[in-house]
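New here. Your pick:
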Amino acid sequence: MKNVFLAVFIFWSCPGKAQQQGSRDFLWGIETGFESQLTGIQPLDSGEPDQVQAAAERHAIGVSMGVFGRWQVWRGLAVQTSLSLSNVEAKIRFDRNVAQNFRFTDLEVPLHIVFTNPQGHFPLRGSAHLGARLGWNFAAQPSNNLSLLHEWLALDAGMGVEIRLKNWRLQPELAYSHGLNNLHDVTNAKYDWLIGRVVRDRLSIRVLLWKFR
């Protein structure tokens, strides 16, 4: 008799569990963010100590927006990708009297592993992500003083809080993107001989929103 009750319990509980898990296998939503970029410029030794070196302003401010999709692969573990557009403008000063604005209008495709606390009690659950992103800058760039490559590769890390709002989920998060590739494209521009590597690092405050089925 115990075996019969056990079989009935498994029969009724498994479909319900499968249906509940299936509704969480994939979700999609929208994201928007505030971006703060640091453009790092490595000066080369010109042999002239009093020579003015090229430098960027410490922070360039911009915004981003996009859509994302998330696949739940295990309890508390998911894979997430998105398609987003960001826009940041950085000023680079080459001389006391020479400065140029460089616009970064990037179409970005990140790929993240997302960890969400499975034991967290709603309405709040902690979340963190690790991964990388690939971006392509579509903005036209000035090239007389310095030429920059369009592609951008970065490592991502971030953390946030998932907030329950009835059937909706709201997740504010803080994310850091560490640029990996050298953006300096040597084209015999005026200041190529003063500049080594050029990298982009970015700190983002983003908000993700999706409907929980």
